[in-house]
Amino acid sequence: MIEHLRGVFSEKIIKISLQVFKNLGGAPAVILIYIPREPVTHASDDDGRARYHGEFKRYNQLLSASALIQNLLLAAHARGLGTCWMTGPKYMEREINELLDITDQELVSVIPIGFPDQSPPAPPRKEDVVRWIGF
Ligand SMILES: Cc1cc2nc3c(=O)[nH]c(=O)nc-3n(C[C@H](O)[C@H](O)[C@H](O)COP(=O)(O)O)c2cc1C
Question: Is residue 127 in a domain?
Fold first, then answer.
């Protein structure tokens, strides 16, 4: 995935990312979030409708999983635990699923979790990202 990273991040971030991917920051535990795997349906099967329903189902599953993950991260933080929401390991999904003998589920995210050895300051909040509409 190095080529993809180069298009998105600076060399400094890539160096840190490569290190993190080696041992997931030294986390003692890793939580894997999965959703049911939707069967691949082709547009010609059913006027595209079956495919649309499949995609819609997956879309909702992904959003539900994302809400779950956000709650999980907040609950962990409230207990003094550190986490990192990761989708980078998706590049290794086939290998991860083989290792865990998982065939009928799709990997959404990987979350290393443990007591952090540092507490960096919160980044500054972005200003003016909300658009208020008056009536
Ligand atoms: C959907 C999603 C996927 C992410 N995937 C990765 C990843 O694969 N590797 C990584 O180092 N950070 C990843 N991040 C970023 C970290 O989880 C975290 O948001 C980032 O380090 C910023 O942390 P901060 O908001 O505490 O500064 C991802 C974030 C999101 C929301």
Answer: no
